[in-house]
Amino acid sequence: MTAANRLTLVRLGLVPLFAILVLLPWGPGRYLAAALFLLAAATDGLDGYLARSRDEVTRLGQLLDPLVDKLLITTALILLVQLHLVPAWVVILIVGREFLISGLRQVAAGEGLILAASSWGKVKTLTQVIAIVALLVEVPQAVLLLYVALVLTMVSALHYLLSNRDLLYRPG
């Protein structure tokens, strides 16, 4: 197994630990959760770098990496709804975008194409990570950062759809 895939599996293992820390009833839990979330988010870039720089891109990595990323972000957002720190409708839109773009990627894969992450997608993810950490550590007005992330999430979705509209209109 490659180092990049091992790192992705470590990130997967951090998700339940992160969730436990968020839900702990004592104060430092959320700060530890925020630190763990940042660590997990940082490994996302690192595993991609390792896979490409070592020419060790695998099908397992191509499958697991985006799934684990979505699981980490979605888990955090759902927990923030449970803690009444963010409105559910915001999370529904963000998670809905992920389903939409994953579906678009499946359509592309059926055509033998791979849709690489766009710069909008990377900015969207970075903004989501910053907003989630700010919400976890209760930065005043952190929910505004989440609204910025929501706007970038929708812009990213629109960008993917417009850039790949030819895929959507091909006969099936």
Automatic annotation (TrEMBL):
GO molecular function: CDP-diacylglycerol-glycerol-3-phosphate 3-phosphatidyltransferase activity
Biological processes, Gene Ontology terms: glycerophospholipid biosynthetic process
Pathway this chain belongs to: Phospholipid metabolism; phosphatidylglycerol biosynthesis; phosphatidylglycerol from CDP-diacylglycerol: step 1/2
Predominant location category: membrane
Protein name stated in the entry: CDP-diacylglycerol--glycerol-3-phosphate 3-phosphatidyltransferase
NCBIfam families: pgsA (TIGR00560)
Pfam families for the chain: CDP-OH_P_transf
InterPro entries named in the record: CDP-alcohol_PTase-I, CDP-OH_P_trans, CDP-OH_PTrfase_TM_dom, CDP_ALCOHOL_P_TRANSF_CS, Phosphatidylglycerol_P_synth
EC number: 2.7.8.5
Gene3D superfamilies: 1.20.120.1760
Family in the record: Belongs to the CDP-alcohol phosphatidyltransferase class-I family.
Substrates-to-products reaction catalysed: a CDP-1,2-diacyl-sn-glycerol + sn-glycerol 3-phosphate = a 1,2-diacyl-sn-glycero-3-phospho-(1'-sn-glycero-3'-phosphate) + CMP + H(+)
Positions of transmembrane segments: 7-26, 71-95
Gene Ontology cellular component terms for the protein in this record: membrane
Bilayer topology: Multi-pass membrane protein
Function (record text): This protein catalyzes the committed step to the synthesis of the acidic phospholipids.
Keywords (A to Z) from UniProt: Lipid biosynthesis, Lipid metabolism, Membrane, Phospholipid biosynthesis, Phospholipid metabolism, Transferase, Transmembrane, Transmembrane helix
Organism: Neomoorella stamsii
Subcellular locations according to the entry: Membrane
